[in-house]
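Next comes a single protein record:
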Amino acid sequence: MQAKEAEADALRSVQLDMEFAFITEQDIQDFVEGMIRAIFKEVQGVELAEPFPRLTYFEAMRRYGSDKPDLRIALELTELTDLMKEAVRLEKAFIEDCLPINALGLSASEFTQYIDYIADRRLESVGLSALNPGVKNPLPWLAEMMDIKKEQNFFEGRVTEYHKASAIHGSSDDEL
C-alpha cells in the first residue's frame, strides 16, 4: 500500500528542470506549450488549442480583476462609469420629455440635477469617481423618501413584513 502511495506522490510532484541558452521568453513558452500538448495527446487523447491563450498581467487585471482569471467563465469586469453616463443621459432625456413645462412645483432642471446627484452617490458608493463632483441635491424631500441608503433587498426583509391575502381579507386558502 505504501509503495502505491509513494508512486502516486511521485507522479503528483514532478519537477522539470530545463536548461537553455540564448533564448527568448517566447521560445520557452512555445517549448512548454508543445510539451503540454504532447502530454495531453498521449495521456488523455486530447488535442489542445495552439497557441494557448495569453494575457499580460495588466490586461488580466484590467479585464478580470485577477492575475489568474478562470477563462472558462466569461465574467469580465465592466466599467460602470461609462454605463452610468449613458444611463444618466437617457434618464435626463426621459425627464425632459415628461416635464416640458414646470408643473406642480417641479422642474426638469431640478430633476436632471437630482439624477446627477443620485448617479454620483451610486458611483461613490462603489468607490468610483463622481461624474459631477460637488453637485447638490435640489430635491431633499425626494431624497428623504427615496434615500438609497434605506433601500433593502427583497430577501433582506422580514417575513412579518409580508402577509398572505387570506390574513388581510379573511379568505381561506381554498378560496384562493
Q: What stands out?
A: The helical segments are 2-12, 25-43, 57-64, 80-98, 108-125, 140-146, 165-169. The CA atoms of residues 77 and 118 lie 22 Å apart.
